[in-house]
Amino acid sequence: MVKKISKPVIIVNFKTYIEVEKDGALAIAKACESVSEETGVTICACPPMVDLGLISRSVSIPVLSQNVDPHAAGSATGWVTPSMVRGCGAAGTLINHSEHKIPKRQIEECIELSKGVELITVVCAENVKVAVQMAEFRPDFVAVEPPELIGGNVSVTTANPKIIEETVEAVRAVNGSVSVLCGAGVKTGTDVKKAIELGASGVLLASGVVKAKDPKAVLLDLVKYL
Ligand code: G3P
């Protein structure tokens, strides 16, 4: 069954933080599931590749891969095919994250292959111009994240609200069916509220949840105005 991502959505990227090694990823995914069930807000877990199958089978919320490669099933040793990601139960994938950038031609191929296996696509962009280029490839979501704010303590919604408004407007002009997310430094419910007010359909965040002493408490705060 294809898991739908309804909006607004909170996508938690686990990255490769030490906190998600061993049983850490499953524990955070369970916290995401528990808060989603308690509040009705869509929360997606985006665990490291090595845990994708385990976590997809262990939680009811949508699980996203952090990456896919532009290869179909076949002879592609060591690459991660969209078909395998879908097959292990994931609902979607990030593409072109700031920490895993790929050339534009490959982004388009990854989107096409992902669509072919009903994998939801979330393509990252560092600015408005790139977001517009990505929207032309017709992904489900474009996530705008200024790289200099990633991992920091100042939210994009405070440091650069303009980039969110401009991305929403520019992406809508290219293709009204592409939703815009924003990320970088998002940590609180107030940040999420501001993102929605600026026109975003949700947020993509990492350190605020993954590195928190109590991820569940942070998640509850993140969704409190939704
Ligand atoms: O993928 C989310 C990300 O790059 C933002 O990270 O730690 O600033 O929430 P963070």
Q: Look at the structure and give the mean pLDDT.
A: 97
CATH class, please? Alpha Beta
Topology order in helix (H) and strand (E) letters: EHEHEHEHEHEHHEHEHH
Instruction: Give the helix proportion (percent range).
Output: 25-40%
Secondary-structure-derived class:
alpha/beta
* CATH architecture assignment name: Alpha-Beta Barrel
Number of strands: 8
- Tell the overall outline: globular
- State the separation between the terminal residues, measured CA to CA: 26 Å
Enter the CATH topology name: TIM Barrel
Low-confidence stretches: none
Bound molecules: SN-glycerol-3-phosphate
Superfamily (CATH H level) name: Aldolase class I
From the alpha-carbon coordinates, what is the Rg to the nearest angstrom? 16 Å
- Hey, roughly how much beta strand do the residues contain? 15-25%
Protein model, in words:
- With 226 residues, the protein is of the alpha/beta class.
- The protein contains ten helices and eight strands.
- An eight-stranded parallel sheet has the order 2-1-8-7-6-5-4-3.
- Strand 7 (179-183), helix 8 (189-197) and strand 8 (202-205) form a beta-alpha-beta unit.
- The longest helix has 16 residues, at 24-39.
- The two termini are 26 Å apart.
- The relative contact order is 0.16.
- The chain binds SN-glycerol-3-phosphate.
- Residues 13, 97-98, 145, 150-151, 183-186, 204-208 line the site of SN-glycerol-3-phosphate.
- SN-glycerol-3-phosphate binds at residues 13, 97-98, 145, 150-151, 183-186, 204-208.
